[in-house]
Amino acid sequence: MFRGTFTALITPFRDGGVDISAFQQLIEAQVAAGITGIVAIGTTGESPTLSHDEREELIRIAVATANKRCVVIAGTGSNATQHAVADTKAAERLGCDGALLVAPYYNKPSQEGLFRHFKTIADATSLPIILYNIPGRCSVDIVPDTVVRLANECRNIVSIKEASGSVERVSELRRRLPEPFSILSGDDSLTLPFMAVGADGVVSVASNLFPAEVCALISACESGDLKSAEQLHRKLLPLFKDLFIEPNPVPVKTALAWRGVVSGAVRLPLCEMTEANQARLRNTLEEFARSK
To answer: Per the domain annotation, does 287 fall within a domain?
Structure first.
């Protein structure tokens, strides 16, 4: 079900609140570029800083604006199982097509704890669920044994966003998981190698800026045109890297602000980029524009 290009959408802010008009414009641009789907209120959308009311409003607007023209996934993960259950049920009620659930962070559950956490959420909803494994942020790894166990025991856990940085991990998951279970790259810079060993697409940060180009990369991989995919990857790689020279989503929001699309504001504890890194990002964007 979840195959292709999914944008981990930013949440635009203005004057301390959510900029609804800018959010709608971002979604329209994604749809126009042919994106498979969007992830609203994920971690790229600064979900930890959003109030309950803001989260529900953004999901409602995302579903209404997309209007079935692309898949809408809500980021509903939490390190408290009861909160994740409530948020996932709300996403289902509001009309989302799926939920993205990051591994519990800080409390570092065991693999049995991870299994019970995700199974409890899956049992509480019929919404298709994408696991999100990012040990560098969460300090816990959803190991392949646990992913396979969840896939086998929970009919609505159907995908994983894999951001461990390991091509070998993706190879193992593809070998052991049922074929319908999809694997999505969680790192733009690793999308090509991940898809070469069996991944089915990407949840992308860079596609906030260049959705058509990221879609073209995924399409080339899907069609087996690895030559074109490699050329696109090489062109996009400096951008992929420099969008993470400071904590995500600060660089991508800064770049969108330069376009006049959003204000560029982030919420504490995030803050604006240093001048040196802004200069570096500008240079990378200018070089990318010249290469088109």
So the answer is: no
Residues 6+ apart with CB under 8 A from 57: 18, 20
For this structure, is 105 an active site residue? Answer: no
Tally of domains in the chain = 1
Q: Which of 105, 108, 119, 161 is catalytic?
A: 161
Closest CA to 181 of 120, 218, 131, 115: 131
- Domain of 148, CATH number, reads 3.20.20.70
Verify whether residue 161 is a known catalytic residue.
Answer: yes
**86's tokens:** 């409530």
Each residue's pLDDT tens digit, 88-124: 999 999 999 999 999 999 999 999 999 999 999 999 9
Q: pTM of the entire structure?
A: 0.96
Instruction: Tell me the HSE value of 118 on the side-chain side, using a 13 A CA sphere.
Output: 34
Q: Which residue has the tokens 């898949």?
A: 71
6-28: pLDDT as tens digits: 999 999 999 999 999 999 999 99
Q: Which of 68, 132, 227, 241 is catalytic?
A: 132
Within a domain: residue 42? Answer: yes
Residue 112 forms part of a structural domain:
yes
Report CA-CA distances (Å) from 103 to 110, 118, 136, 140, 178: 11, 9, 11, 7, 21
